[in-house]
Amino acid sequence: MRTLGIVLLWLCCTLGWAQTADERAGECLNGCRWFELQDICATDSAQMSPFIRLFAQAMTAQMFNRPAEANDRILALIRQHQEQMGFANVYNMMFMLIDNYGLLGDNASAASAARRFATQIDGKVPADKVAPIRAKERLYTALQAYDMYSTDTLDHTVPMAYTQISDSTQGLITLRGMVNGQRADFIFDTGASYNVIAPELARRYGLRLLDDSIQTQGTRLGGGQMAIADDITLGDVHLRNVPFAVLDIGAGNERIRHTVSRISLIMGQPLLRQYGRYTIDLSDNTLHLYHHSARRPVRSNAYLDGALYAEVVQDGHRMPIALDTGADKTTLGKAYYKDFAADIARHGKWTIEGASGFGGIVYNSVFRLPQITMQVGSQPFMLRNVSVVALSTGNGLTENYGRLGMDFVRMWHQITVDNTNMTIEVK
C-alpha cells in the first residue's frame, strides 16, 4: 500500500517524544499491525495525543472497511494537523480519500476531490506528482456516467464449481454466468483487488473501454485499462454497470499464455464489497451473497487492503495472511520467513520454485515445510508441504506474510466473510 510507506516514516521520527499509548500505536502503524492497532484504539485511545489518536482512527477505519468514517478522519487530519503531516503525508492521504469516495459509489465526489487537489498542487510540485491525481480525476469523471453495480437488495445464491485450470494440476473456484448476454465462466478470487478481464474477452463481450490507463500489481508492476460491462449475471444475481480491469495476464511471457487462458475472467473484491456478508459453502458448492449484515460489537479478525487478509495465529504470533481463492496452494512470504527463520531452516527443504501471474513468471528461493499448524478465529488447522519464500525475483506477491490458497479453503465446509464487521468464520 503506497500510502503507508511515506506516512509512517514520519511516525518513526515522532516516537521518541510520544507518550506510552502513542508509542504503542505508532509501532503498530509503522509495522502495519492493524489487528493490534484496533485493540489499542479500543482500550487506550483516550491516552493518545490528538494527532496520533486521529491518525490511528483513520487507519483502522480504512483497513476495516469503514470508508465513510475513514474519510471523516482523513479530512479532520488534513484540517487540524496539515503542518505536522507534511506534504508527502497529505498527498498519500488524499489518494485514500479519493478512492474511498469511489468505494462508496460517489464517483462525482471522487472526481471533484481529485480535481481540487490537483489544481492546488499544480505548479508547486513536480509534474509526476500531479499526473496520478489527474488520472484519478479522469477515471472517476468517466465513471460518473454509470450507476455502478446497479442491482436489487435481495440475498442471492450462486452455484460454484471446483475446476481444474487448463492441463495443470491447479484447481480454482469457478462461477457460471453471463457477460452482456453471452455465457461466461468466472474465476472467483478473494485475493483480486480488481475484477479482471483479458483484452480479447473485453472485445468479444463488448465492454465499454475507458480512455485512461491504470497501474496494477501482480508478480511485477503493470498496466491496463478500465472497462464497463453493461450487464453481468451470476446465478440469480443480475448487476448493471460492472467495472473490470482489462489486463493481458500473459503479457511478457508467452510460456504462461496457455496456462492463464482459463483465468482471463475474474470476479474479485470489488464485487464482494457490494455485499454485507458472503459464505463460500463447500458442502453444497454454492456462494451465498447477503446484501445486509448488521454492525455488531465484535473484534475484527479480517481487513481489506485490495485483497482480503485474515488474522492467523502461530505460536502466539499474530499475522495477516491473504485469503486468496485465486491461488491453488498456500505460499508464505518473506515477512513470515523473517519471523520464523530458525524453525524454517531447521525443518524446511530448500529449492527454487517458479510462480506465474500478471507480470509474467518469477523465480523464488523457497523452503518447503512438511507441515505447519496455525489457527484462524477459534479453529486450528494444519497445512502440509507449504512453501515459504526467502528471496524472489519479483515483488508484491511475496513481500508480506503470504496467502492462504485453495488447499486451505477446501479444508472447511463453510467460510463466512462479514464485510460489515470484518470477520472471517470457518467451520
Describe the structure.
The chain contains 13 helices and 20 strands. Strands 2-3-8-4-7-6 form a six-stranded mixed beta barrel. The chain has a six-stranded mixed beta barrel with strand order 12-13-18-14-17-16. With 427 residues, it is an alpha+beta fold. The radius of gyration is 21 Å and the shape is globular. A hairpin with a 1-residue loop joins strand 11 and strand 12.
- Helix-strand makeup class: alpha+beta
Largest sheet: 6 strands, mixed, barrel
The residue ranges in which pLDDT falls below 50 over 5 or more consecutive positions are 1-18
Please indicate the percent range of residues in DSSP E strands (runs of 2 or more): 25-35%
Percentage of residues in helical conformation: 25-40%
> If you compute it from the alpha carbons, what radius of gyration comes out, rounded to the nearest whole angstrom?
21 Å
Mean pLDDT: 89
Task: Identify the quaternary structure here.
Answer: single chain
| Number of separate helices | 13
Overall geometry: globular
Termini Cα gap: 31 Å
Q: Give the beta-strand count.
A: 20
Side-by-side strand order of the widest sheet: 2-3-8-4-7-6
Give me a quick take on this structure.
The chain has 13 helices and 20 strands.
List keywords for this structure.
six-stranded mixed β-barrel; 35% helix; disordered N terminus; alpha+beta; 20 strands; 427 residues; single chain; six-stranded mixed beta barrel
Give the topology:
Blueprint lengths: L1 H13 L5 H11 L3 H11 L5 H14 L3 H37 L3 H15 L5 H17 L12 E9 L6 E9 L2 E7 L7 E2 L1 H7 L2 E10 L3 E14 L2 E10 L10 H4 L4 E3 L1 H4 L4 E5 L4 E5 L11 E4 L1 E8 L2 E7 L7 E2 L1 H6 L1 H7 L1 E9 L2 E17 L2 E14 L9 E3 L1 H4 L4 E5 L4 E4 L1
Parallel strand pairs: 3-8, 4-7, 13-18, 14-17
Antiparallel strand pairs: 1-2, 1-10, 2-3, 2-6, 4-8, 5-6, 6-7, 9-10, 9-19, 11-12, 12-13, 12-16, 14-18, 15-16, 16-17, 19-20
